[in-house]
Amino acid sequence: MTQPPIFVEFRGVAMNAAYKPVTLITGASSGIGEALAEVFAARGHALVLAARRVPALEALAGRIAALGQARPDVLGIDLALPDAGERIAAALEARGLAVQNVVNNAGFGLLGPAADSDRATQLSMIDVNVRALTDLSLRFVDSAATHQGGILNVASIAGFFPGPNMAVYHATKAYALSFSEALHHELRPRGIKVSVLCPGPVKTEFLDRAGIPQGHFPNVLMRSAERVARDGYDGLMRNQRVIVPGMPNQVMTLLPRFLPRTLLMRMVGGF
Ligand SMILES: NC(=O)c1ccc[n+]([C@@H]2O[C@H](COP(=O)([O-])OP(=O)(O)OC[C@H]3O[C@@H](n4cnc5c(N)ncnc54)[C@H](OP(=O)(O)O)[C@@H]3O)[C@@H](O)[C@H]2O)c1
Description:
- By secondary structure, the chain is α/β, with parallel strands linked by helices.
- It is built from ten helices and nine strands.
- Helix 2 (54-66) links the parallel strand 4 and strand 5 (73-76).
- The longest helix is centred in the middle third of the chain and has 21 residues, at 119-139.
- The radius of gyration is 19 Å and the shape is globular.
- The structure holds NADP nicotinamide-adenine-dinucleotide phosphate (NAP).
- NADP nicotinamide-adenine-dinucleotide phosphate binds next to helix 1 and helix 7.
- Residues 27-33, 51-53, 77-80, 105-109, 128, 154, 156, 199, 201-202, 204-206, 209 line the site of NADP nicotinamide-adenine-dinucleotide phosphate.
């Protein structure tokens, strides 16, 4: 005979105590998201891996299981869909999973002047980098509080300054940075950790997808996805508000305090 679900009350919200707490990682099919999944799994977290490319997620789940860690759940989802958040919540509910941590890592960029670049792609970038990140940050707050978890949002050092030639991307990351810092402040009293990870350039599929040629960024700024993921995990665990991996990138984030805005944009845009 199946047991009836056990409900507990938390801040007026009924929750099923039998649900398994998980860390939801978006954009886990490659790059930084894949590395984050490996770090979270190695530290004993049960995972849900989300992205569009299910075979890549399944392969990663298999590799994690082969290391003796719990096999992650896999969720195929296009985060540009307006109801992506609802679909994810429904899938988790159906599988008896409750979100402890959310890692909003999925995102993409596009190199080129905004007015000459594909508008639909740039609007879709806002859907993924901004809308989905906001939805998933807010949707599971009660669950994160119950399970003493947190939110790790992946922005970029691009969020610290306007970026001619990548205008929409920089603006989405400025949003992610500002939103996450404010959320850190708001959710601290509820015991929910909120960190925003701001990497400099990382050699992943991101660069090809954005149309960024090799050698575009100085080598001194480059970091590996594994290093960035470790810094992100450690930063979230100590509830560090803003995490910038690597000293040269930390210096970059200070430039807007000292340089005139026009000079900064010439440097970033290269013209
Ligand atoms: N690489 C860098 O230089 C760099 C620097 C700073 C910040 N970042 C940020 O780091 C994050 C991860 O990027 P990455 O470098 O690891 O790039 P990546 O290897 O291209 O990974 C991007 C991830 O986002 C997912 N994604 C993209 N669009 C999606 C959509 N519509 N629906 C669901 N998932 C989607 C991709 O999965 P699918 O294609 O399978 O859907 C993939 O797993 C991004 O937010 C990026 O802006 C990157």
